[in-house]
Specification:
single chain, 462 residues, mainly alpha, 21 helices
Length: 462
């Protein structure tokens, strides 16, 4: 027979009493010898549904305290770390925790954690205790209307005025990021990766959040000049991701409420930041996370504002140098080929090959090259001594000069005609009286100058 009273007593001695002692600042060890009191007497707790149900019923008040960051449980100093480990151990044996948390008001919980952060303001890392609460919600399948929750948080936060204070707003931003992660069609493992990225880089991301929601969170600064300066100088770990903050700041700098002096200082910092980014290689590590949190803005900000990094500038310069060298090599090869071609023409003449064959070969080249070859061949004193060349050169000269300058004149006339048409505001086609759409047009009138008739030759259908 299942001993309910014994199980309740065991949970009290092994779970709740040590937790109560931790809350008072004492050791979290049980006050009784569990082995002697239970195991030695033949009682071995079975972590079956009955045990888990009783454990859950006992722990619900403590869950409430922990979820809401109540100072009775989420107290000062190192005790909070011991309590975190204790809660991890307890919840592992409670299969109802996720269902219970699914019915809780997480915005209210975040607001309570904001009050907790203000009470223990000197503990700068206390925000990461709230991350642990979110880890538990993810691990144990808390189900909420994440999209509705993120929309509500966005309306609360994405305004020009802080909705609470810089501490509470910071917690609400963490919750907003969490809701954006949770509504993605990802595996639990992928969501854990993104939450871990948020945790690891929150010190940087809270500055990015500040510019994206247009008011400062997580730090005491009252102007964005100091926020930008902090990102510039506070940590080397920021540098690979600095372009993310830079893009957000550059996009909204005109919307931030700053005095003329603050605006000037911010502009200088932006300029220095741009120079600094060109000396380091940007990281794409946070791209998936930022794209998830700010899906409507992040990719656009990168396209419009991200400056090239130092390596990208080097790559670009390297590509330019390669193109220059390729062009130099190609020019050298081309010049050699042209010299070889001219030499071949001269050899043909020296071999007494008839001029008509030379003429036929010249016609295969563009007008500019053909005329150049002709002049180069004639410049040779030996070639000038050939009677056949002396006799036919004037005719060839006139032919290829006309071919060259004729094509140039045609291109000029075509360009002028197109420019005239482009300058006219409208173009209207008129048909002869009585003609239908299927009839061939016989005249055109451009614009409103109806007296300028352009005849069109009748086109045969044969």
């Amino acid at each position: 027979m299942y001993n309910i009273d014994k199980t309740k007593e065991y949970i009290r001695d092994a779970v709740t009493n040590p937790l109560e002692r931790l809350m008072k600042g004492e050791s979290g060890e049980p006050t009784v010898n569990l082995y002697e009191k239970y195991y030695w007497q033949g009682y071995n707790p079975k972590y079956d549904p009955n045990y888990k149900s009783m454990l859950h019923d006992v722990m619900v008040p403590y869950y409430e305290l922990y979820l809401n960051g109540d100072t009775k449980l989420c107290c000062a100093g190192d005790r909070l770390e011991f309590i975190r480990r204790k809660m991890d151990y307890i919840i592992k044996y409670d299969d109802q925790f996720g269902q219970w948390a699914s019915e809780k008001n997480l915005i209210y919980a975040a607001e309570c954690w904001g009050d907790n952060l203000k009470r223990y303001e000197k503990e700068t890392k206390r925000i990461y205790r709230f991350f642990h609460v979110l880890e538990l919600l993810l691990e144990y399948d808390c189900q909420q209307e994440w999209s509705t929750l993120s929309d509500k948080l966005q309306k609360m936060l994405f305004t020009h005025e802080a909705c609470y204070d810089y501490k509470t707003d910071e917690v609400l931003c963490v919750l907003h990021a969490f809701t954006m992660i949770m509504q993605q069609d990802w595996t639990k493992e992928r969501k854990k990766e993104m939450l871990d990225l948020l945790y690891q880089h929150w010190l940087f991301l809270k500055h990015y959040y500040s510019v994206m929601i247009r008011h400062i969170i997580g730090v005491k600064w009252t102007n964005f000049y100091k926020v930008a300066e902090t990102v510039m100088h506070s940590s080397q770990s920021f540098k690979p991701h600095m372009h993310i903050f830079y893009c957000g700041l550059l996009d909204c700098v005109d919307e931030l409420k700053m005095s003329k002096k603050e605006k000037s200082s911010t502009d200088k910092t932006i300029s220095l930041m741009c120079e600094e980014m060109q000396r380091c290689e940007p990281s794409e590590l946070l791209y998936p996370l930022c794209d998830t949190i700010f899906p409507e803005d992040f990719q656009r900000l990168l396209r419009e504002h991200r400056p090239p990094s130092y390596n990208e500038i080097l790559d670009d310069n390297h590509k330019k140098e390669e193109l220059i060298q390729q062009m130099k090599s190609q020019t050298t090869r081309t010049c050699r080929e042209l010299e070889k071609t001219i030499e071949n023409f001269k050899n043909m003449l020296n071999a007494s090959i008839p001029i008509k064959y030379i003429d036929a070969e010249l016609e295969k080249y563009p007008p500019e090259l053909a005329f150049t070859f002709l002049r180069e061949i004639d410049a040779s004193p030996i070639i000038k001594m050939h009677d056949a060349w002396h006799e036919h050169y004037p005719e060839l000269f006139n032919k290829y000069r006309e071919r060259l300058f004729g094509s140039i004149q045609q291109q000029k006339e075509l360009t002028e005609s197109m420019m005239k048409v482009a300058k006219r505001p409208t173009q209207v086609s008129y048909y002869e009286a009585g003609s239908t759409h299927d009839d061939k047009r016989k005249q055109l009138i451009f614009g409103e100058e109806k007296e300028m008739i352009v005849p069109i030759k009748q086109i045969s259908n044969e």
